[in-house]
Amino acid sequence: MFYDIFHKLCKDYRITPAKVGRDLGINQSTISMWKSQGATPNAKTVTAIADYFRVKPDYLLGNERENLFYDGKKISIAMVDFSMNNKSLAENLGISEREVAQYRCGKIPMYYETLKQLASILGGTPPDFYASPEDLKRKSLDGPMVNYVIIESHKLSDEATKLVRNFEALNDTGRRKAQEYITDLTEQAKYSKGGESDGNNEKEDA
Predict the structure, then answer these.
(1) Does domain 2-60 have CATH number 1.10.10.60?
(2) pTM for the full predicted model
(3) 29-66 confidence digits (pLDDT tens)
(4) Which ranges constitute the DSSP H helices of the chain?
(5) Which residues, 6+ apart, have CB-to-CB distance to 122 below 8 Å?
(6) CA 23/CA 49 separation, integer angstroms
(7) Per CATH, which fold does 68-150 belong to?
């Protein structure tokens, strides 16, 4: 369990386990033991690796999901370097210009898959856009430039992803209205799964 998570982080950062070992003073034989025997390092080493990758120790131990943040300021800087504006980045990502503007300001959470795509377009990897501890401290000083990266536990359909993105673009009042409307729809048999057939619904709604 530990090595699988450790190896995934190494892959995300495009570095080798051996390099992490050199940086932190961990023997290669120790890292090999994590892999071959499924061993878990001591608390001091787990904490050091967690600090290295900017994750919580519990995440490395498989006790909770990764808690990541992205920094909108880093997105804006990369866009300038690649001579991209909101419109061109939106077209490449297949999203609206408004969403790009919101990401640049850290107004809304970003799905990890979106961050991967964005990073690739801007010549980097997801960790290049992660918020550092200093960035998180700055959040309270310079405004909402930092927000969550959502690690999906399963692949959403394109329709569900679009619904989530549209919901995130709403203000608090709009979100309440959307929730009320969705709740109302799900309570009607003709719109819920296992209810009347689509064909019957279309005839009734016509």
Answers:
(1) no
(2) 0.46
(3) 999 999 998 888 888 898 889 888 877 777 788 765 55
(4) 2-12, 17-24, 28-37, 43-53, 57-60, 72-81, 86-93, 97-104, 112-121, 133-142, 158-168, 172-186, 198-205
(5) 75, 78, 79, 81, 82, 84
(6) 10
(7) 434 Repressor (Amino-terminal Domain) (1.10.260)
